[in-house]
Amino acid sequence: MSKDSKKIILTNQPSSSSSSSLGTPLPINNRFTPLSPFSSRPRSSTPISVRPPYSSRNNTNRGHQPPGRLGLPVIGQSIGLLRALKADRVEEWFQQRITNHGPVWKASLFGYPTVVLHGPTANKFIYTCDGNLLTNTQPPSISRILGSKNIIELSGNDHKRVRTALVSFLKLEVLKQYVAKVDQEVQHHLLTHWHGKHEVQVQPLIKILTFNIICSLVIGIERGPKRDKMLPLFQDMIEGVLSVPINLPFTQFRRGIKARKKLVPMILHLIREKKEALKEHNQQTDPHKDLITSLLSICDDHSSKTMSEEEIIDNIITVMVAGYDTTSVLLTFLVKLLANNKAVYSAIVKEQEETARSKAYEEALTWEDLVKMKYTWRVATEMLRINPPVNLSFRRAKQDIEYGGFIIPKGWQVLISASMTHMDDSIFKDPTMFDPTRFEKHAPSPPPFSFVAFGGGPRMCPGTELAKIETLVMMHRLVTRFTWELLKKDESFKRVPMPEFDHGLLVQLKSLKETMNAAI
After folding, report:
1. 309-340 vs 464-479: helix crossing angle, rounded to 10
2. Does the keyword Transmembrane helix apply (predicted)?
3. Which residues are 482's β-sheet partners?
4. Can you name the residues that pair with 288 across neighbouring β-strands?
């Protein structure tokens, strides 16, 4: 897929001096100057500040709302944005409105009036601002389907408490021991779904793989009918996560709600089974056996359980939805890239063959093996820059906020788009070009909060290291066992809300082992 038509003209970069004050509530006299999106120079007097809530009877005293229009109630511009996402033209959709209105503008999206912000300074404001200014309230479709207690929805102390609990399992020190388990899932998957096949649809198969890995590590369900029953429910939930929140028959939103209702009792049953197992073994069960067991084992300083059943359910669903779709999107784009870019393919094969030569054919990979795959991960990082799986991040104004000379009214959504900084040619030179050298150790680092594929600050995705492990293990096994060619050279994709290839990325597959045997 070419992104040649998607050059973004923003130049909104935070300087070290101006951006350091974000993240705490600012009084009127404490000015912060976001940079202009059309100039590298800061504005002279454009503060972020907090104003008292305005009365509906005192509108003459209100500050100016951002330019733009809200449109029809509930629907607003949601359908237009969804169409742009499905056509992979979201940068153009945003850029058109920046051209018309500037870097701060309003719309009505997914049921709420929304202020849209652009640039690294805006990203930092969103990702580091504390709960006094912004809450992490998501559009109704997200909160209704993932649950109101999920980590995406939480702010302040609740977010910190739940994040600490999740990170206790998802931190690198714990995940290192699961590299072999991930590798086992990958090898079984390739043997079952890829070997012996001449044509495969890559994206649906990789989704099955990431779902199986998540099931094993997160909820402790091994292969079998339980996994098979959950898979279609997750697919329906994901389609409903970013949809117009109209709860009518045959809508994506209704299907997502129904899928959640079926899934919750299944997860609750697992939670209670694992509770009993912990009691039976007098809390001696390995707390890192899976994420549910880990969350059930965490206590505070007073020996009280840190998370309720409702919180565990909502966050298990959130981790599974996120892990199922985001990593599969990255891997699918990498498969397409390696079919089209022979230089990158050859460099990755060279790196992976060095690891393969030191091990038996099916010998499990270790964390030490993955550490050596530096070029492969730089390629993956550059792919995340060009095609971030999660493009949109939402917050909700807890009180009236002045930003860039405009008022963000209390209760309104605030939205940023990752790709608008990822494709900014003032931050990343020739942004439509695929260039993994951008992320080399000695290359200049991009400005803070300009690369936000995994979020940023205290909102950094807690599953980043797991995604890295899955990606490196799968790429190693793919390039050392198969070669492939695209059967549809220009196969396009749409975002629904994650990128979905029109034909699942159809490839012609050749087994390297079979090719070697035939040559002998």
Report:
1. 40
2. yes
3. 511
4. none
Q: What are the residues whose beta carbons fall under 8 Å from the beta carbon of 473, sequence distance 6 or more?
A: 179, 182, 183, 186, 365, 370
Does residue 361 register a pLDDT over 80?
yes
Give the distance between the most distant pair of CA atoms in the chain.
86
Tell me, what CATH number does 38's domain have?
A: 1.10.630.10
Say if 331 falls within a structural domain. Answer: no
First to last CA, the chain: 38
Residue with tokens 């359910």: 313
Let me know if residue 398 belongs to a domain.
yes
Reported as a single tens digit per residue, the pLDDT across 145-166 is: 999 888 888 877 888 888 888 8
Helix axis angle, 374-386 to 464-479, nearest 10°: 110
pTM of the model: 0.81
Residue-range definition of the domain harbouring residue 20: 16-156+389-439
Please report where in the chains the tokens 């150790």 appear, as a residue. Answer: 441
Winning range, highest mean pLDDT, from 53-62, 280-289, 406-415, 491-500: 406-415
Task: Give how many domains the chain has, as a whole number.
Answer: 1
Q: What is the pLDDT of residue 468?
A: 96
- pLDDT 10s digits, 508-517: 999 987 665 5
Residue 215 labelled as part of a binding site: no
